[in-house]
Amino acid sequence: MSRLLTRVLTSAHTHRNLTSAAVHRSLWSAASLPASACPGSAVKPVMEPKLYRPPPEVRGMTSLDKQAFTQTISVPALRVPTGVLNKVIKSLKKSTIQRPGVPRVVQGTEESSDFRLVLLDPHRVSSKSCFSEAEAEALRSFSVSEELQYYELQLTYDNLKSEEVLEAVLPQGQDVTSGFSRVGHIAHMNLRDHQLPYKNLIGQVIMDKNPGVTCVVNKTNIIDSTYRNFKMEVLAGEENMVAKVKENGVTYEFDFSRVYWNPRLSTEHQRVVELIRRGDTVLDVFAGVGPFAIPAARSGANVLANDLNPESYRWLKHNCKLNKVESKVRTFNLDGRAFIQGPVKQELPALLKGKTHVHVVMNLPALALEFLDAFRGLLHQEPPCDENLPTVYCYGFSKDDNPDTDVVKRASRSLGFPLENRCSVHFVRNVAPNKDMMCVRFTLPKEVLFSSNHEQTEPSEEPAPKRRKCEETTDST
């Protein structure tokens, strides 16, 4: 349980600032309202606990009707001379209303241009006694009365946040998500079964509330592709799947529907690349579209990058040219085991005699640990010393209560050599409530690489694809 509490990562949410809502300009007398919830107050306006929530009539809506979300609320306001308006707003920045598209300053019903109304957050201010000492002192210094007036404000769909709209629409008691992964102009969601009847509405809301998002997709529940790129359906917007993204200063382009890309792995990509020095060699077994290979090449490394998916291979080559590192990256379109027992085997003898380091990156966490056996007895002639043996970064998923121990045991079993006390394990991210992505880092033992006791595994295709849930097969690269 403690592991889950410390490792669950929350999705980041982005919200849209939209155009101003229509405002009704009628004032209510504060004296006509009952006493405030603020301690010591003499008057108290009626404040609903869910003041900013859409009307209940929208519950169960599957086709978006923006007009149905309109409601009118009463908010407190201060009558402020225009000459000190900016100073007052600055002094009350924690107490003014903060809603998408709602202005903090409006014209009252009076015709005078010498005064404006500053709208306040009704959850923070319901009487003059709710102002802090500093705020009250500032109002006195600007000769602004602390007596509240009340303003009838119309809130529309444009003034609501995405999670507010979805919470109002989806069945009560069910999980509500407005979280998604942003991949260029594409918002990528992973909807649950109870959300599927509302999928098109959800897609439209996400697109409306996030500038630059012109396509919203949802990945399907099952993946059975040989290349392990998940299938998806478009929920809203255009069907242009070619995305352009920038990660850690590097630009990538790819067809998001045919390759794998996870924006949540940018920190891990950077962490590993920072361990690589100019002149080093990187052997990227499952390179994808290049998030390890290309920044490593930009930092001065020589790279051999491989991927089985022809589309990933095509975009890998494209991205190398796009970032002007094609002379530093040799690309291959092979099965991972064939890559290790082919190009890697050919290059290693000379590399091990050199003075620069060799890094082997194996980022296919659903399967990579199973590929470590390809290194058994890979080379025949042992070098004079073992100072330059390759460093391996192998990724894996674990549902074990002790994921560090679990991935080390599995790596050791695949290598046929114990890695306990000879490796380090890095937690990458929580993929699901009981599932972690880990990275095992170790120096490839010479007993494995040069052992004559192991029969070398014949080059073969990657394991036949199983019908796995997307989470189990796509959190790679």
Textual characterization of the structure:
23% of the residues lie in helices and 22% in strands. It has helices at residues 2-7, 85-91, 133-141, 162-169, 199-209, 266-273, 293-298, 310-322, 336-353, 403-415, 446-449, 470-474, and strands at 27-28, 71-81, 105-106, 115-119, 149-155, 181-183, 186-189, 215-219, 222-223, 232-237, 242-247, 250-255, 281-284, 302-306, 329-332, 358-362, 391-398, 423-432, 435-443, 468-469. The chain has a seven-stranded mixed sheet, with helices on both faces. The two termini are 28 Å apart. Residues 4-37, 39-49, 456-461 and 463-476 have low confidence and may be disordered.
Q: What fraction, in percent, of the residue positions are helical? A: 10-25%
Enumerate how many helices there are, as a single number: 12
Strand content: 15-25%
Specify the overall morphology. elongated
Kindly report the average pLDDT value.
83
Catalogue the unreliable spans. Answer: 4-37, 39-49, 456-461, 463-476
The major sheet is characterized as: 7 strands, mixed
Order of strands in the sheet with the most strands?
Answer: 15-14-13-16-17-19-18
* Structural class category: alpha/beta
- Topology, number of strands: 20
Radius of gyration: 30 Å
Our measurement of the CA-to-CA distance between the termini, rounded to an integer number of angstroms, reads 28 Å
